[in-house]
Amino acid sequence: MTDATLIDGNAFSAGLRDRIRAQVHTLRETRRITPGLAVVLVGEDPASQVYVRSKHKRTVETGMESFVHTLPADTPEDELLTLIAGLNRDPQVHGILVQLPLPRHIDAQKVIEAIDPAKDVDGFHPVNVGRLAAGGEALVPCTPYGSLLLLKDRLGDLSGLEAVVIGRSNIVGKPMAQLLLQENCTVTIAHSRTRDLPAVVRRADIVVAAVGKPEMVRGDWLKPGCTVIDVGINRVAKPAPEEGTRLVGDVAFAEAVTVAGAITPVPGGVGPMTIACLLRNTLVACARQNRLPLDAI
Ligand SMILES: NC(=O)C1=CN([C@@H]2O[C@H](COP(=O)(O)OP(=O)(O)OC[C@H]3O[C@@H](n4cnc5c(N)ncnc54)[C@H](OP(=O)(O)O)[C@@H]3O)[C@@H](O)[C@H]2O)C=CC1
Ligand SMILES: Nc1nc(=O)c2c([nH]1)NC[C@@H]1CN(c3ccc(C(=O)N[C@@H](CCC(=O)O)C(=O)O)cc3)C=[N+]21
Predict the structure, then answer these.
(1) Domain Tetrahydrofolate dehydrogenase/cyclohydrolase NAD(P)-binding, which positions (predicted)?
(2) What is the CATH number of the domain that holds 264?
(3) What is the DSSP string of 47-80?
(4) Into how many domains does the chain fold?
(5) Phi, then psi, of 145 in degrees rounded to 5
(6) I want to staple 221 with a disulfide (CB 3.0 to 4.6 A). Which of 45, 183, 201, 230 is the partner?
(7) Is 223 part of the annotated catalytic residue set?
(8) What is the CATH number of the domain that holds 79?
(9) Measured in whole angstroms, how far is the alpha carbon of residue 165 from the centre of its chain?
(10) Is 53 annotated as a binding residue?
(11) C-beta of 141 in contact with ligand 1 (< 6 A)
């Protein structure tokens, strides 16, 4: 059998960013409005620093304003909440993202709930979680939304397909399952207590792996021809004698590529889609805050 088609998240996200840039340009020319994204980073986690830098770069490239707030690791919770209250009131800021994870002394849920739901471009506020579940005008979490765009581009109508989401976090697994349900998939959510995970995964036409365990999903768990979305971002040591680290997903790619019909690589799959969808959410939030219609993006 021939190898799986690679789902190119770099290429797809570049196209999405182009469409966003065009709309940002139109907003500025016709309404004198520039969408603005505020990103808050607390502490010096190196991975978080890399993500925040790349979000800033992409935001500016798209013609939006980027406001990055870097706070020391020992910032009191109160101070962070005060900063968020200021961003909520700032008319130049249409989207607010607080980079996770936060230091242990800060209650992440409290911080998320302090963000104005209209500016919650991560889609983590309970109002947006509720709207997604009930089918309202939600801001949808970026990683699941980006994953869904890749699936629809590849498969078209998803109605009736068997989807297995591995992982039930609030930021990936649960919203991913909601989106697939909205698309009329038959959805199974698997997690660390799931019995016989390989047998559950073998039913799936669509597998979304969001576990955080390097290469956990094996090739022989997959139904031949299925579509695999690998959300995992795991930094592991390169095989000896090489030095340094490399990124791998939650799926054993070399095995899976011989069984699946299509698969996202890591890197270059879901990761770049997450950032493009963050920009999309910022544009959508800006348009809604200004009561402006938006072409479909
Ligand atoms: N590409 C991107 O843009 C993004 C990538 N990520 C990556 O996605 C991965 C998942 O992230 P996130 O959802 O935040 O992770 P969490 O750690 O919050 O959740 C992991 C989930 O996996 C489940 N799990 C753990 N071990 C197993 C197992 N052996 N079998 C089945 N399920 C298991 C857990 O189950 P239980 O609930 O029972 O503990 C949990 O629901 C990580 O690698 C992360 O780096 C995350 C965000 C964005
Ligand atoms: N409030 C909040 N919102 C988030 O959306 C959020 C967060 N916190 N905390 C951390 C996770 C992780 N995340 C990624 C974004 C981009 C890539 C990405 O661009 N990855 C590239 C490669 C990156 C590299 O080389 O290190 C790729 O997969 O091709 C990955 C992961 C967003 N997250």
Answers:
(1) 141-289
(2) 3.40.50.720
(3) HHHHHHHHHHHHHHHTT-EEEEEEE-TT--HHHH
(4) 2
(5) -65, -45
(6) 201
(7) no
(8) 3.40.50.10860
(9) 14
(10) no
(11) no
Q: What is the pLDDT of residues 148-171, one digit of tens each?
A: 999 999 999 999 999 999 999 999
Residue 167 annotated in ligand binding: yes
Residue 55 designated active-site: yes
Contact 57, 248 (CB under 8 A): no
How is residue 260 written in tokens? Answer: 């699946």
Residue 182 CA to ligand 1 center (angstroms) comes to: 22
User: Could you give the ipTM of this predicted complex?
Assistant: 0.98
Nearest to 277 by CA among 169, 101, 147: 147
Instruction: Give per-residue pLDDT as tens, 233-274.
Output: 999 999 999 999 999 999 999 999 999 999 999 999 999 999
Which pair of structure tokens corresponds to residue 128?
A: 């947006």
Measure CA of the first residue to CA of the last residue in the chain; give whole Å: 36
Residue nearest to atom 20 of ligand 2 (CA): 271
- Decide if 197 is inside a domain: yes
Is residue 147 part of an annotated ligand binding site?
no
